[in-house]
Amino acid sequence: MKAARIFRAVLHAIRDRIPAGEAIHLAAQLPIVWKGIYFDGFTLREEPVRIRHEEEWLEFIRSKDAFADMADFPTLEHAHYAFQDVMKFLRSRISEGQYNQVAQALHSELMVPA
Predict the structure, then answer these.
(1) Distances (CA, A) of 21 to 45, 71, 91
(2) Helix-strand-coil percent breakdown of the chain, rounded to 5?
(3) Which residues of 20-43 are buried (b: 16+ CB within 10 A; e: fewer)?
(4) Which residue from 12, 64, 94, 110 puts its CA 20 to 30 A from 56's CA?
């Protein structure tokens, strides 16, 4: 259950950080079960959430974990590793072009794995 909450929190943070069109393109490449997780609570926004610094990004990921944030992400380092792991996993499951578009939309200061 903890792994599912962490995966969901990171996916939701990514979804809300990238432009809506990019978020929908990413969802199109996800397996059906992940699409349900990904779109749970989705609100279409004109502009993505603005985040420019890694610490702000990691706090944003933690905020997506509702009431379990301190259990799942006791430190920002835990959020950092969760983000890195989910991005590596996405890289192995979506096209290289889509991965690069998501990584670019997230912003280079957020330490997206190459």
Answers:
(1) 10, 33, 19
(2) 70, 0, 30
(3) bebbebbeeebeeebeebbeeeee
(4) 94
Q: What is the pTM of this model?
A: 0.90
Cβ partners under 8 Å of residue 55, min gap 6: 76
Alpha-carbon dihedral 29, 20, 74, 86, rounded to 10 degrees: 20
Residue 52 has a pLDDT of: 82
Distance between CA atoms of 104 and 112, rounded to whole angstroms? Answer: 9
Q: Which pLDDT belongs to residue 4?
A: 92
* Distance separating alpha carbons of residues 102 and 107, to the nearest angstrom: 9
Q: Which residues of the chain have pLDDT under 50?
A: none
